Each structure stands twice: as structure tokens, then as C-alpha cells.
Amino acid sequence: MALKGYPPAPVPGKGSLKDLKEAAEDCHACPLYKTATHVVFGEGSSRSKIVIIGEQPGDKEDLAGEPFVGPAGSMLDYCLEKAGIPRNTVYVTNAVKHFKWTPQGKIRLHKKPSAGEVKACKPWLEAELGKIKPDVIIALGATAALSVLGKATAITKERGKVMEQEAYGSPVIVSWHPSAILRSIRSEDTEQKREQLIEDLKLAAKVALKKPQ
User: What is the SS3 assignment for 89?
Assistant: First the structure.
């Protein structure tokens, strides 16, 4: 159910991930589509055992129309490689499919989506998860955790845990968003968060291996 003021996202009841992606092109469930270049839908196989969820596309992703292709994507690729997980084996997406930004000169600065925008976009995420039925979900950052778990989550306290989520039938692990790692002021904080994300990705792989096929 969308918040007051937002129409329900036009999610088709049937079809493939490709059909969902095509339908999302016409989504006007919240105002973010008005200033975005592209809707940035998820990418990967419907047979993926691991789904990785970020907050929203960034500037590079908005221009390319693909998730995690900018600096945050490079950081995610590095951590996946260190965790021994080929990127082409996971499905990557975002809680919000349009880039929310504010202008600063010629630069488009990231702006955090509101709870209403997250909720308005949630039907798309639910549809993706329903098609894939992953063995484990990794929510990167507080916004992704809010969308998946339905409540505010402190990453510092909850990361590294495997949490059951009945709504999707898949356990959830929360961890640092790659952008948070890149924004760390001190180099030791960057290294610590990066290593923690790698640990959490390894944990997700172990969970996926233990799930009955």
C-alpha cells in the first residue's frame, strides 16, 4: 500500500523480470521520475541465489540505466571478488529505481530518498524478489534495510547477522553500502568497513550454500 499522495506502482501481476523492467519504464508512482534520466531496474539472472539491494542509482547509474556501474559499483565489484563471488552470479538492484538528486553548479548531488519514496517503489522490489526467490538477500545501507525489513536499522549494530524475513521467505543480511565506505573520512574507517562488507558477502555465500536446493 502506497503512502497517501502516491499512486500504487504499476507492477504487472505476471511475466518475467524482463517484463517487469519494461513496465517500470512507465512508473510514475512518485515524483522522482520527473528528474531522472532512466529508471534503473535490477540486473542479473532470475536463478541467482543471492540478491544484493542498494539504496538508489547514482549519477553514473542514472546516465547508463544500469545498477552499480559508478564508483560504488567498482567498490562492490572489488568486495565481491575478494569474497569469491562472481558478479554475474548475483542479482543487483536498488530499493528506489530513480536517481534522487539536488543540483550544485553543474554537479548532481545524491539526495537520500524519503520513506514515502521508498514505500512507493517497494512493489517493484517485492516483484523482483518474488520472481527470483533468492536463498539470501543482502541489504546495503539503511535505506535498503528499511525497504526490506520495514523498520529503521542501525548497520553498526545489525551487520553480520542472518535475520529471517518471512515476507520474502529469504534470510536477510545487512551491511555497509559501498558509497558509505567511499565517504569514510579516515582511511582506517574505509578499510574496516570494506573488510566488513567482504565478511558479510562471504557469510551470504555460506548461507546460500546451506539452503536446500
Answer: helix
